[in-house]
Amino acid sequence: MINWIDLATGHGYAGIEMAALLARLFGNRLHGRAGLLVLVARVLSGVVFVVFSLGKFTRTDQYVADFGTFGLPESSLLVYLVGLLELIGGLMLVVGFLTRLAAPGLGLDMAGAIVTAGIQVGGPIHLVLAPTLAAAMLFLIWAGPGPYSIDARLAQRMVAPI
After folding, report:
1. What's the pLDDT band for 154 if we cut at 50, 70, 90?
2. 101 phi and psi, to 5 degrees?
């Protein structure tokens, strides 16, 4: 039986596993001035994702047609789902909340943009910006949210004595 108090407080075997999982999720590989690099990568990427998501809600018909051209289902639902991923994931990056959960989804989004629009349309957005954002997502998965994030504050609270 799971002892939820032990899980929450980090006591006992299950608590050690949970603490290790949370450390991986919220932990940072870069500190001090290097943490500023994470902040810049996270916030700039997040803002770009938010800005590009807005078009999926304001010009849905155009994106539905584009997705159909790229061999994707011509569905406004798919456009809205991608828009929501970019909007919510981008906002999560901007504030540094669950960064290591948002970054993989956004990285896959950029991989999809590269193999669809990048191949068929080309151009700087699909062949420069999308790979740059994909690389930034890999960097954030590796580096973590950085010391200037909600994740870092949550991590401090989890290890602080009650």
Report:
1. confident
2. -95, -35
CA 123-82-133 angle, to 5 degrees, is 45
For residue 148, which of 107, 97, 102, 100 has the smallest C-alpha distance?
A: 97
What average pLDDT does the segment 107-131 reach? 93
Q: What 3-state class would DSSP assign to 32?
A: coil
Integer Cα distance of 61 and 58 in angstroms: 9
Residues 6+ apart with CB under 8 A from 95: 149, 150
Alpha-carbon distance values, 112 to 71, 82, 106, 108, 118 (Å)? 11, 10, 10, 6, 9
- Alpha-carbon distance of 138 to 125, in angstroms, equals 19
Q: Is the dihedral of CA 20, 96, 136, 81 positive or negative?
A: positive
| Predicted pLDDT at 2 | 46
Q: Structure tokens of 109?
A: 């989004």
Quickly state the pLDDT bin for 3 (edges 50, 70, 90): very low
